[in-house]
Amino acid sequence: MRVSLRLDVWLPALAAMLSVATVQCGDDLSTGRARVAFDVWAQGVNPVADTSLGWRVRVEQAAVAIGPLRWYEGAPLFGVRRILRALSGTAWAHPGHYVPGGAMADVTQRVVVDLTGARAFVGRAEGVSGAVQSAHVELRPDGGDLGPARALLRGGTLSLRGTATRGDRTVRFEASPTLNVSVEGIPARAENNGSPGAWVLSVDLARWVDRADFSTLPMTDGYAPFGDDSQPASALYRGATTGAAYRFDWSPSAADAGR
User: Fold this and answer.
1) Distance CA 227, CA 231 (A)
2) Across-strand partners of 105?
């Protein structure tokens, strides 16, 4: 059997892995970069919104298992088309070819974030000083290492419950899909020079379900689940794995970032 290698695919991935190893092992003093550390917080935003298909959605409960999180010096690219690298478990935030460049910092642990609760502490990132332009967020399957908060996920990588109304029809819905992706190329621009501050990750809940057609869900007295092969399930997968659903903002005050 003949096996061919796509160098345009594997070389950037190899470079990214080597860059991450450099961050984790320590900085190169010959570059003049210093070690830096900062807190990372996460929150859900836009729990009530009108979707592209004319539904008024109210998210009542949402949670997600995230981590690791990584920051890179490579610039993100912008666009409206979503390219999902399903076979490699990678979701791209833009239509172009993203090159992450050098790894600047990371948070290696995984945590469960209640996206309808207060802003949650994710962890303490460590890395090297320099200009950050983009970030990755990994969404991995539920695991026993997530502690008691994993119950919020209801067995999935993320969970979601709410109501969707269009005209005289109201649908109560729920979903807890298992995802195994890295959302890459998310804009995250700041100068990590050791000054006080923190990153805040905002997860846009409206983006998660923007293309879901809730009229295809079965009628039920309780919450209608997203079937594995249903249109809402497919829409949720695309919404939750696009970089447009995530935003990193740098807060110069670590105390304010946690509020």
Assistant:
1) 8
2) 71, 127
DSSP string over 37-96: EEEEEEEEE--EEE-TTS-EEEEEEEEEEEEEEEEESSPP---S--EEETTTTEEESSSS
pLDDT tens by residue, 74-109: 988 643 333 334 334 455 444 456 788 899 999 999
Percent of the chain with pLDDT over 70: 79
CB 217 within 8 A of CB 173: yes
Q: What mean pLDDT comes out for the span 142-158?
A: 89
Peptide bond into 100 cis (omega under 30): no
Backbone phi, psi, residue 103, to 5°: -80, 135
- Pull the structure tokens for residue 86: 């399903």
Threshold 0.85, pTM exceeds? no
Q: Note whether 55 and 44 are within 8 A (CB).
A: no
